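Late entry, evening session. Most of the bench is empty. Finally got around to the prediction I had been postponing all week. Sequence below, unchanged from the version circulated by S.P.
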Amino acid sequence: MSTTIGQRWRTGRWVALALVVIAVLSAVSALLTAPRPGGRMDPNSTDSDGAHALVALLRDRGVDIVVAKNVADVQRAARPDTLLLAAETYWTRGADLLNRLQSVPGDRLLIEPTARVREALAPGIRIDSASALSAQPDCDLREATRAGIVQLGPSDAYAAVGDTDLTRCYGGALVRYRAGARTVTVLGSAEFMTNGGLLKQGNAALAMNLAGDRPRLIWYAPQKAEGGDSASSLGATITDLIPDAVNWIIWQLCLVVVLLAVWQGRRLGPLVAEKLPVVVRASETVEGRARLYRSRRARGQAAQALRTATLQRLAPRLGLGVNASPAAMVAAVAQRSRAEENTVHHVLFGPAPSTDSDLLHLAHALDDIERQVTTS
């Protein structure tokens, strides 16, 4: 008896130890593979707006990347042969911090700079609202011509200030000019450099060509405010924190609201109250018609009513008119629901059911088709 108990204890001990090891390995694996959240262009974030993938690719390429959390880190790491990547910098507040960044040696790569950042770090450019963005480089910049066609996403376009010798690519979304011994590159969009946009056509090549242009890269994408507690104490106003295109969007929305109010005000008249002779609930109407169809065995009429109602609801969702041909309706429904056209044609335009069970199956089939088209 004691030998059996001892054997069971030893066996159970190894089983328990194996379960503990499996649990520990699972926890460590989950911790290592879990997504790391972060803000836009955060080099440690694996979210779609983060830049962990680009940083990993650049390091594999041999680029020495210094992640700077504040302006002091940038000043300590900067050298004449470094490239400073400054992303957005909405959080860099105060003229003093921008002046310190302005005095940092080395080239600059500015990503979606705000108005204050452009004024301090790229005074040779301005917003060009008249430019049309392009997926083609349309320039002789080596980094852009090697990347070819890219999908930048929503972007600002830039033009030269004064007599600045500006190289413009992709309709002004990527610009470069020389300021003394320094090369300043400005990008109007960061989307193509993020984890979510890096896999699109040409995006990874352009991002690596621009960010990997120097052997040492200072990555400055602050995720929290630096420089002060309030905008008023730093000499900034609320308009300094608003992107340039927001004002145009607000004016356009106001114009649309005014035009809509004028249009609806001329079209609609006063309400007319009409006393109904009797109020019948919709459920009672449906049940009454169903009983009439069943009492007269009018399965054909009931099936036709179900099919007609389904087609009337599907036609607007499919972009078809009320007089669309059966062939066009069947093709559109089959494409949206990924069902065979013969099956769709049988359900929507097939023969009348011969039994109540067939009528019930037809109703279920029509519901399935409508749900698939609605959710596709």
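Two things to note before I forget:
Strands lie at 64-68, 82-87, 107-111, 125-127, 158-160, 167-169, 174-179, 182-187, 216-220.
The first helix runs from residue 2 to 33.
Will write this up properly tomorrow.
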